[in-house]
Amino acid sequence: MFLKELKRVEIILEGEHIDSLKRILEKIEIGGYTIFHNLEGKGAKGYHEGRLLFNEEDALVMLMTVVEEEKMEAIVKGLQPFFEKHSGRIFVSEARMALYVS
Q: Cα(56)–Cα(58) distance, rounded to whole angstroms?
C-alpha cells in the first residue's frame, strides 16, 4: 500500500451558484468532486436552515474534491473573483489517498 499526498478542498456557497462553480472547476480540469446539498449550521452570518421547502437554491451546498497541490492552488486562485462578489468559504486541508500496488 502506498499513500499519496493530496489536498482536500471544501467549498461552501449558496446553492444558486453551484453551476457556476462546476463550470470553473471544469476549466481547471478537476476530474471529480462530491456535492453535499442542504447544509445546515451556524456561521458568521447566523444560522442557515438545511431543508427549505420550495427553493433549494437558497440553501447552502458544499463541493468537496481531493487534488494535487497545483490544482488546489488553481482552484483557490480561480475562485477569487467569484468570492469577491459572493459569500462562501473555501477550506483546504491535507489528505492521503491509499493506493494499493499488487
A: 5
Whole-structure pTM over 0.90, yes or no? no
Q: CB neighbours (10 Å) of residue 34?
A: 10
Instruction: Cell 486562485: give the residue.
Output: 77
Report the 10 Å Cβ neighbour count for 81.
10
The one-letter amino acid code at 37 reads H
| Amino acid, single-letter form, for residue 15 | G
CATH architecture assigned to 2-99: 2-Layer Sandwich (3.30)
Compute how many other C-beta atoms are within 10 angstroms of the C-beta atom of residue 54.
5
Residuewise pLDDT in 10s, the chain (102 residues) = 899 999 999 999 988 999 999 999 999 999 999 999 888 777 776 776 666 555 555 688 999 999 999 999 999 999 999 999 998 999 999 999 999 987
φ and ψ of 32, to 5 deg:
-160, 150
